[in-house]
Design goal:
Layout: H1 2-20, H2 25-32, H3 36-44, H4 51-60, H5 65-70, H6 74-78, E1 102-105, H7 108-114, H8 118-122, E2 126-127, H9 131-137, E3 140-144, E4 159-164, E5 178-182, E6 186-195, E7 200-204, E8 212-215, E9 219-229, H10 233-269
Parallel strand pairs: 1-3
Antiparallel strand pairs: 1-2, 3-4, 4-9, 5-6, 5-9, 6-7, 7-8
Helix pairs in contact: 1-3, 2-3
Length: 270
């Protein structure tokens, strides 16, 4: 009975991830190199997936093997420190909390070095956002993306808006993006798990399938990404406008050629 329940729970987790990402059963089955019928049995909990299949699914959805096998409650069950409130350890409060304004960080290295320097913070540019965003999320800060290789759909010049976390217990197993200020710079990543006994965050970005660790002792601030303002939208719009103009010009040219051919045909007939 326990084995059946386990297979069913694993299948439900795999199905939820597929639906969340708008993939078809046939698409995931092709990635696993199995038939859609066999994959369907995995989601229904009638068939236990192989280690290779689970590993591929975990890698594709940026999850861990243990997450798929045991669920997001796995850490809480195995580590008493996480059982009620997660890894309960306070994070330093951000200096210079601003009301209804968002300070924007353009230089990650300089910010990591001077984040407690009020003179430096007051010199940071202000980014205007709707009041409701701050009212709903509390202390927020903007971080300019200076490296487009960390995560997909983030481009140089984009501004990632983060809500400050005050305790490590606020970190939950999810696909959320976090802005982590370390002693040496800023890391944009997802947090997969917390290794409590070693006080390490297990993180991942889109540059590699490999995970990397950040020591809790090296972390100065953590911000949960709640929004993004993109600098690439306007260039894309401009490109589309140019494409439309080019297509329009081509149509006009084609119409003129058709008219010329039509006139020539009439003259030859006469």
């Amino acid at each position: 009975m326990q084995e059946i329940l386990s297979k069913k729970n694993i299948g439900q987790r795999i199905k939820a991830l597929r639906i969340e990402n708008n993939y078809s059963q046939a698409f995931i089955a092709s990635l696993l190199n199995i038939s859609r019928s066999n994959y369907s049995q995995i989601e229904l909990g009638n068939q236990f997936p192989t280690y290779e299949a689970l590993s591929l699914i975990a890698s594709y959805y940026s999850k861990t093997y243990d997450w798929l096998l045991h669920g997001p409650e796995f850490l809480a069950v195995n580590h008493p420190a996480l059982k009620k409130h997660g890894f309960s350890k306070e994070l330093p409060c951000a200096s210079l909390i601003t009301s209804k304004r968002i300070l924007t960080v353009n230089d990650s290295l300089n910010y990591a070095r001077r984040l407690h320097d009020v003179t430096y913070l007051t010199s940071l540019p202000i980014f205007n956002v709707p009041d409701s965003l701050i009212e709903e999320n509390g202390n927020c800060r903007g971080f300019t993306i200076d490296n487009s290789e960390s995560l997909k759909h983030l481009y140089p010049g984009d501004i990632l808006i983060g809500r400050q976390l005050t305790n490590f217990s606020e970190i939950a197993p999810s696909n959320d993006i976090y802005i982590i200020v370390t002693l040496t710079g800023i890391v944009f990543c997802r947090i997969d798990t917390i290794i409590v006994e070693k006080e390490l965050l297990v993180c991942q970005n889109d540059k590699s399938d490999k995970y990397f660790n950040l020591a809790v002792a090296d972390i100065q601030e953590i911000w949960l990404a709640i929004g993004k303002y993109s600098a690439i939208i306007q260039p894309v719009i401009n490109t589309l406008e140019n494409m439309v103009l080019t297509i329009g010009e081509s149509i006009n040219l084609l119409e003129r050629e058709v008219r010329k051919l039509s006139k020539k045909h009439k003259l030859e007939t006469l």
